[in-house]
Amino acid sequence: MRVLITGGNGFIGRKLAMALLHTGAVPVDHGPPRPIERMTLFDSVPSEDLPPDPRVEVVTGDITDRSAVERVAAQADLVWHLAAVVSAGAEADFDLGYRVNVDGTRGLLDALRATGRRPRVVFASSLAVYGGEMPEVITDGFHATPQSSYGTQKAIGELLTADYSRKGFIDGRSLRLPTIVVRPGRPNKAASTFASSIIREPLAGEEAVCPVAPETAIYILSPRRVVEALLRAMTLPESAWGMHRTLQLAGITVTVGAMVEALARVAGEAVTDRIRWQPDPAIERIVETWPVRAEARRARSMGFTDDGSFEAILQAHIEDELGGRRA
Amino acid sequence: MRVLITGGNGFIGRKLAMALLHTGAVPVDHGPPRPIERMTLFDSVPSEDLPPDPRVEVVTGDITDRSAVERVAAQADLVWHLAAVVSAGAEADFDLGYRVNVDGTRGLLDALRATGRRPRVVFASSLAVYGGEMPEVITDGFHATPQSSYGTQKAIGELLTADYSRKGFIDGRSLRLPTIVVRPGRPNKAASTFASSIIREPLAGEEAVCPVAPETAIYILSPRRVVEALLRAMTLPESAWGMHRTLQLAGITVTVGAMVEALARVAGEAVTDRIRWQPDPAIERIVETWPVRAEARRARSMGFTDDGSFEAILQAHIEDELGGRRA
Fold first, then answer.
1. pLDDT per residue over A43-67, tens digit each?
2. How many domains would you assign to chain B?
3. Is residue A78 domain-shared with residue A227, that is, in the same domain?
4. What angle do CA A151, A154, A155 make, to 5 degrees?
5. Residue B158 shares a structural domain with residue B36
6. How many interchain CB pairs under 8 A, A with B?
7. In a mutagenesis test of the B interface, which of A145, A244, A246, A301 is the best target, namely the one with the most B β-carbons within 10 Å?
8. Which terminal CB of chain A, N or C, has fewer other CB atoms within 10 Å?
């Protein structure tokens, strides 16, 4: 199989690539694992410190560059489309967001369609497609009425993925990802970045600012489970999706206060004392518009799972990012 | 006020234009009627037989022609965006559908945004945004999972209209129209065209073919009510829309058999004998995927109404299109 990962140098793209290289094969349609012959990591940012691997090809380019996209799409059997301008970025630069998140996605789908080989595509969408007036629990049939350009662009990407699939140009599947916690690396411009910072930085011996109140609830999934979900979405047979190509993933609902309490239990109060509680009304206003609970009945019936508890998310972070050490 | 109607030579565009010219003013935000100084009818097809009116400017052009669209958008205060490739057309020519229904809509919104004048926009969407597994009654919060390219493109148009509004570039409102019955004129390529043909042609002394079984139910609205709804959507204040810019209109649910029975009561069986029942599995398959009932609670609360009965729709057709005469 020839694999293409757009946004292959993002933190999820890299984790996914490492997982694929590690197993070396993909059990498509529950069949025997099929070996990965080639893996193209396409990203606007040059990839850093990837272990050398003869199967890996790193291509630095822009998802809006049609000829670059056509080149990397030409041979792909399995495509994970993760490249995107993130939420705050798409809100700050309207045209850039549409160019990358909408035109980039459509250009990729058109390039894949042009191959005539009907590649399989997993598109990373987001619970940012929800917004406005919402019930306490989002059900699978609830409408997407995004209140951000990012959410709008992701909703459009889902619609395109579904229509290109229905027409037989690709075999696409879209996953609405919960907020990913704990993200490794540095804070980014997403309004949700604090949700990882308040765990990651104190564990690394650094201060972190929490801009929302402890009772603020969020809907989260660990990087581990996200990678598992991206793999599962690719390997499930087409018949599992039926007429609906978009899936809200299951996550867990947790308050920021409960997250910090769990951190104190695992790492001690000396660690959680590094969190400064400093409300930021602008961030609070954005976070308040996010759904905090989804039923995700369909995802669960298709075998997608959540982390069970925030302690498990914390433990996974300590194992995967800190080599098991707590600061 | 300066009015722009795209698709201004379509049958709804023409009816809307005539209604606006007749009243000569628009009561924006429930305020005093504000006179129409100029009305631009933009369409790819040259307008026929419009009564001469110094306020009317007819522009023949393509909605995908950016400079033409910029010209007609430059001065517009109120825009009805009706131009579209219809359902069967968008299904038959994938690229044309996306070019006109998606790129055309986005180009128009960008041109309106560029004016910096925040024009008000009513976008004609469709219940074709629904599809796949559906409950018996579509509620206002039910998700749009279109099973046609046309429905996909309309759903994208709604998302764009909402996001451009949220950003303050326009003041947009999208209406999901039921199937419009009785359409005047000739049959077109829409799969729904029979729903008008089986009434219109027999009344005109011609034969019509009904490709679906009498028990087939459809969700319909008369041209009269559609024009009323397009006007109401424009005149309601922005506050009436809140965070949700898309509205499923109320229609009535009627079986094809009941429509024909009503026609027999009004016009006699000599008229309904002109209908040939000749099932077409391809048409039946498409029609079966359409929702047949919507709650439309929000639309009703905002003053949008249905026709009450099919007899009323029939009566309106006879009055409006046949000068009150029955064949």
1. 999 877 778 899 999 999 999 999 9
2. 2
3. yes
4. 85
5. yes
6. 69
7. A145
8. C
